[in-house]
Design a protein that fits this description.
Oligomer: single chain
Number of domains: 2
Number of strands: 9
Strand content: 15-25%
Order of helices and strands: HEHEHEHEEHEHHEEEHHHH
Length: 283
């Protein structure tokens, strides 16, 4: 038995440290070690990577990552109440766990890793989408991480992988699919969490594309904001806010002016972004 195996059950740790999950922090603790180890394994090889974990809470997934052979785990936790529980795991895995007390939205994660890295996290619901967008907007690209294995509410996961023409297809799906290959691996029901959320969760695995379709990130973001901001309108109307003749822009990209945002492919959005660049749109 290893020192990690000898750690007390997570429910005991939560009770001893008074770690009642806080809704304001988007906390829902996953205590089932079989599930956390499944998440850890689904991330791919761990022994040759630094693993960045966001929102470890009492350390259920942290334990699993270390048990599954992670070379090093960097855990970023905003809630100072959780630090003593994480310190116990740190002591049980000397030199393999580093705990950072801070807000993940403000931490420079690339500076915390040396060599190959993966992000594996049961993300707090209230910051899950902003964190994903931050990782997708990483510059330069390819990014500092070789994969993202993240838990979201099921409805967010569906938006990430949604195809053109579906009701879930939007800005997040375009950005995620432009820069990565996303895939929903499996769902986890509410009863697995403490406290149980009102929704099903999904584990999503995203692998960065080495060479995304050529276009500028800032222009792609402007286009999708304009197009999906008025998704019921035809593109000839919704793209007028870009400050260029929408009809000319669409014609240059080979897109019918009567099309709507939800029907365009990622390739077509990238073509629009390239045409936008040629028309020297002001920032």
């Amino acid at each position: 038995m290893t020192a990690l195996d000898a750690l007390p059950p997570l429910r005991d740790v939560i009770a001893r440290h008074g770690l009642a999950a806080r809704k304001s922090l988007g906390q829902n603790f996953l205590l089932d070690l079989n599930l956390t180890r499944r998440i850890a394994r689904s991330a791919g090889s761990l022994a040759d990577h630094t693993i960045v974990e966001v929102g470890p809470g009492p350390g259920g997934l942290t334990r699993a990552l270390l048990m599954e052979g992670a070379r090093r785990v960097v855990a970023i936790e905003r809630d100072e109440r959780c630090l003593p529980a994480l310190a116990e795991i740190e002591a049980a895995a000397p030199g393999r766990l580093t705990v950072i007390h801070g807000d993940a939205l403000e931490v420079n994660m690339a500076a915390l890793v040396d060599g190959p890295a993966r992000v594996v996290a049961n993300l707090p619901y209230n910051v899950a989408t902003p964190l994903l967008v931050n990782w997708l907007e990483t510059d330069p690209w390819p990014p500092w991480f070789s994969s993202l294995t993240l838990m979201f509410q099921r409805e967010v996961a569906e938006r990430i992988v949604a195809e053109p023409g579906s009701k879930d297809y939007g800005r997040l799906g375009v950005l995620a699919q432009w820069r990565t290959e996303p895939d929903i691996l499996f769902d986890i029901g509410p009863k697995a969490f403490t406290p149980p959320p009102k929704v099903t969760s999904s584990v999503v695995h995203l692998i960065p594309r080495v060479q995304p379709i050529a276009c500028e990130l800032r222009l792609l973001e402007r286009l999708t904001a304009a197009a999906f901001g008025q998704r019921r309108k035809m593109l000839r109307s919704s793209l007028q806010s870009l400050g260029v003749p929408a009809a000319e822009l669409l014609a240059a990209a080979g897109i019918e002016p009567t099309e709507r945002a939800e029907r365009l492919t990622v390739d077509q959005f990238c073509a629009l972004a390239r045409m936008l660049a040629e028309m020297q749109v002001p920032t």
